[in-house]
Amino acid sequence: MDLYEYQAKELFARHGITVPPGQVAATPQEARAIATELKVPVVIKAQVKTGGRGKAGGVRLAPGPSAAEDEARRILGMDIKGHTAHSVLVEQATGGFEEYYAAYLVDRANRTLLAMVSSEGGMDIEEVAATKPEALARIPIDATSGVDLETARLLAARAGLPEDVQDAVAETLVRLWEVLVEEDALLVEVNPLACTSDGRVLALDGKITLDGNAAFRHDHAAFADGSDDGGLEARARAKHLNYVKLAGQVGVIGNGAGLVMSTLDVVAYAGERFDGVRPANFLDIGGGASAQVMADGLEIILFDPDVRAVLVNVFGGITACDAVANGIVKALEVLGDARCPIVVRLDGNNAEAGREILSDAAHPMVRVVTTMDGAAELVAELAAA
Amino acid sequence: MAIFLTKDSKVLIQGMTGAEGTRHTARMLAAGTDIVAGVTPGKGGQAVDFGQRRVPVFGSVAEAMTETGADVSVVFVPPKFARGAVEEAIDAGIPLCVVITEGVPVHDTLRFWARAQASGRTRIIGPNCPGLISPGQSSAGIIPADITSAGRIGLVSKSGTLTYQLMYELRDIGFSTAVGIGGDPVIGTTHIDALQAFQDDPGTDAIVMIGEIGGDAEERAAAYIEQHVTKPVVAYVAGFTAPEGKTMGHAGAIVSGSAGTAQAKKEALEKVGVRVGKTPSETARLMRDTIQTP
């Protein structure tokens, strides 16, 4: 789960990292009120989970409360790379500082944690890595030993930070490590990390990605937010379904993340021959594929007004296909009439018995197809019709 | 022959007395696995009756290994306790630890992985994986045994159900070993580890590799294949239509920025001569062609 800047800064502050005073606002009036309380000037920053805000005009300086209100009005609702700014962070502007860069992240390839610190803050770190690699220290960190003050000083020195700020930055680097480990983050990034002329070290921006698997040992639920999908993802979550809304017309249900991803691809390929129809969602109902879960899944998908045909793609492994077929029949009984055609492809254990159960049930909206490619072809044709 | 798991493997189950553990232990026994022990802290001295075999339960992995000679552990304990269970197995010196548990925090995986590296004695497979099966010999995990047969294809995959799909489509040819390495961002055994083992296994003639979006494991596997693998490799990559920034079920399957796309993975593999199927069925056909026209 990616956090907004203001949420990341909340976690930074909890771990003793200095951030500029500020508050989040959802309306121009709120922005004005916050700016009135803060020492001006303030910075108005679009809260979106993507980079390139500055270039898109989503970060503006406001000399006073009325300017803050105007800037907030301009930024709120702004689209930045497909993300709508629903809120702005109103923050006291920081003056007179040098910009550095600090991040910790999971290095998947080496199965370790990686520290990255640079004297070149404020710019795209990939550009720094490409054009000025000597200004970027990349040091693998052993998950069992972590970052202590000594390691942090080494990081600051290797990154080429001025000697007089190394100690202060090192202290922040240790705290940032605490954020990573204690909050179960997969990424923490501060860019820029500011060192002011009066010797303070502040996180002027912040990016944190939390590990959803670790939710059981944290109080991070408040950070979750709904997305603009007409409430479908929230409905699915309430039913404990692994659902992602996509932009197409073919509803997809399958068992196993890999098989469902693969089904989306096969539907999209078939769609190239039928009006360019695309998958409408990702929905993994897991290995068991019980009647109730199947019914819940079909319900969510048929609730999506974009869906014009549904593909159920199940591989019968531990749960054999006859059981899956019985589940589909029961699910359709629970749901009543389906409003659009449902193509079912069953393969694996007892596939023939499963297909027979479905033909015997003779549901008017259900079509049974033997292969995945054939099923995708048919569902694309039906969705385009 | 096979990799990592053979008919001689003696398997213990951590979390055998839980619902999932019991259910899958019965299935593994039915697949011919030599299950010698269960481990549940506090339940040592008990035994679980599986019909054809009564499996003793021990309070610790070390005790189970001493008493039974177990050399493989399969972990079914819940995410909260997974790290503790795996570290116990590592400290006891188990040669192979297969972590089925889904939902293990990445920091926990990083820690037990670092510990396994430091000990130098334990291979980890998973977490969040279906395990591995050497058909006709042994099964350690949850891969259905009755969808395929023994043969000479090796398979390595991030995805469980895609593994099953390919095993089923190629059931007449059969498999030496199928390894599900799991879909988490950090995993113990990688595509490369399995490729290396299959290359060295005289019982494997050709390899199916299944990847998916996220990370750069497939790109690195391609570089490894170019340098070290002489056996034919056929691949499949899932997730061409996955949008940037959305997680598709597997914690590791997320495209961020330009890295980790299915297209990039496909191109990297094709560049080193690996044939990449557009769909699982086409991948199976490519493997058939490869085996039949050497």
Automatic annotation (TrEMBL), chain A:
<feature type="binding site">
    <location>
        <position position="205"/>
    </location>
    <ligand>
        <name>Mg(2+)</name>
    </ligand>
</feature>
<dbReference type="GO" id="GO:0042709">
    <property type="term" value="C:succinate-CoA ligase complex"/>
</dbReference>
<dbReference type="InterPro" id="IPR011761">
    <property type="entry name" value="ATP-grasp"/>
</dbReference>
<feature type="binding site">
    <location>
        <position position="191"/>
    </location>
    <ligand>
        <name>Mg(2+)</name>
    </ligand>
</feature>
<feature type="binding site">
    <location>
        <position position="99"/>
    </location>
    <ligand>
        <name>ATP</name>
    </ligand>
</feature>
<feature type="domain" description="ATP-grasp">
    <location>
        <begin position="9"/>
        <end position="238"/>
    </location>
</feature>
<keyword id="KW-0067">ATP-binding</keyword>
<keyword id="KW-0436">Ligase</keyword>
<dbReference type="GO" id="GO:0005829">
    <property type="term" value="C:cytosol"/>
</dbReference>
<comment type="pathway">
    <text>Carbohydrate metabolism; tricarboxylic acid cycle; succinate from succinyl-CoA (ligase route): step 1/1.</text>
</comment>
<dbReference type="GO" id="GO:0005524">
    <property type="term" value="F:ATP binding"/>
</dbReference>
<dbReference type="InterPro" id="IPR017866">
    <property type="entry name" value="Succ-CoA_synthase_bsu_CS"/>
</dbReference>
<feature type="binding site">
    <location>
        <position position="94"/>
    </location>
    <ligand>
        <name>ATP</name>
    </ligand>
</feature>
<dbReference type="InterPro" id="IPR013650">
    <property type="entry name" value="ATP-grasp_succ-CoA_synth-type"/>
</dbReference>
<dbReference type="InterPro" id="IPR005811">
    <property type="entry name" value="SUCC_ACL_C"/>
</dbReference>
<dbReference type="InterPro" id="IPR016102">
    <property type="entry name" value="Succinyl-CoA_synth-like"/>
</dbReference>
<feature type="binding site">
    <location>
        <begin position="52"/>
        <end position="54"/>
    </location>
    <ligand>
        <name>ATP</name>
    </ligand>
</feature>
<dbReference type="GO" id="GO:0006104">
    <property type="term" value="P:succinyl-CoA metabolic process"/>
</dbReference>
<comment type="similarity">
    <text>Belongs to the succinate/malate CoA ligase beta subunit family.</text>
</comment>
<feature type="binding site">
    <location>
        <position position="91"/>
    </location>
    <ligand>
        <name>ATP</name>
    </ligand>
</feature>
<dbReference type="Pfam" id="PF08442">
    <property type="entry name" value="ATP-grasp_2"/>
</dbReference>
<dbReference type="GO" id="GO:0004775">
    <property type="term" value="F:succinate-CoA ligase (ADP-forming) activity"/>
</dbReference>
UniProtKB/TrEMBL annotation, chain B:
<dbReference type="InterPro" id="IPR005811">
    <property type="entry name" value="SUCC_ACL_C"/>
</dbReference>
<dbReference type="GO" id="GO:0004775">
    <property type="term" value="F:succinate-CoA ligase (ADP-forming) activity"/>
</dbReference>
<comment type="subunit">
    <text>Heterotetramer of two alpha and two beta subunits.</text>
</comment>
<feature type="domain" description="CoA-binding">
    <location>
        <begin position="4"/>
        <end position="104"/>
    </location>
</feature>
<comment type="function">
    <text>Succinyl-CoA synthetase functions in the citric acid cycle (TCA), coupling the hydrolysis of succinyl-CoA to the synthesis of either ATP or GTP and thus represents the only step of substrate-level phosphorylation in the TCA. The alpha subunit of the enzyme binds the substrates coenzyme A and phosphate, while succinate binding and nucleotide specificity is provided by the beta subunit.</text>
</comment>
<dbReference type="InterPro" id="IPR036291">
    <property type="entry name" value="NAD(P)-bd_dom_sf"/>
</dbReference>
<feature type="binding site">
    <location>
        <begin position="100"/>
        <end position="102"/>
    </location>
    <ligand>
        <name>CoA</name>
    </ligand>
</feature>
<dbReference type="InterPro" id="IPR005810">
    <property type="entry name" value="CoA_lig_alpha"/>
</dbReference>
<dbReference type="GO" id="GO:0004776">
    <property type="term" value="F:succinate-CoA ligase (GDP-forming) activity"/>
</dbReference>
<dbReference type="GO" id="GO:0000166">
    <property type="term" value="F:nucleotide binding"/>
</dbReference>
<dbReference type="InterPro" id="IPR003781">
    <property type="entry name" value="CoA-bd"/>
</dbReference>
<dbReference type="Pfam" id="PF02629">
    <property type="entry name" value="CoA_binding"/>
</dbReference>
<dbReference type="InterPro" id="IPR017440">
    <property type="entry name" value="Cit_synth/succinyl-CoA_lig_AS"/>
</dbReference>
<dbReference type="GO" id="GO:0009361">
    <property type="term" value="C:succinate-CoA ligase complex (ADP-forming)"/>
</dbReference>
<dbReference type="InterPro" id="IPR016102">
    <property type="entry name" value="Succinyl-CoA_synth-like"/>
</dbReference>
<feature type="binding site">
    <location>
        <position position="43"/>
    </location>
    <ligand>
        <name>CoA</name>
    </ligand>
</feature>
<dbReference type="GO" id="GO:0005829">
    <property type="term" value="C:cytosol"/>
</dbReference>
<feature type="active site" description="Tele-phosphohistidine intermediate">
    <location>
        <position position="250"/>
    </location>
</feature>
<comment type="pathway">
    <text>Carbohydrate metabolism; tricarboxylic acid cycle; succinate from succinyl-CoA (ligase route): step 1/1.</text>
</comment>
<keyword id="KW-0816">Tricarboxylic acid cycle</keyword>
<feature type="binding site">
    <location>
        <begin position="17"/>
        <end position="20"/>
    </location>
    <ligand>
        <name>CoA</name>
    </ligand>
</feature>
<dbReference type="InterPro" id="IPR033847">
    <property type="entry name" value="Citrt_syn/SCS-alpha_CS"/>
</dbReference>
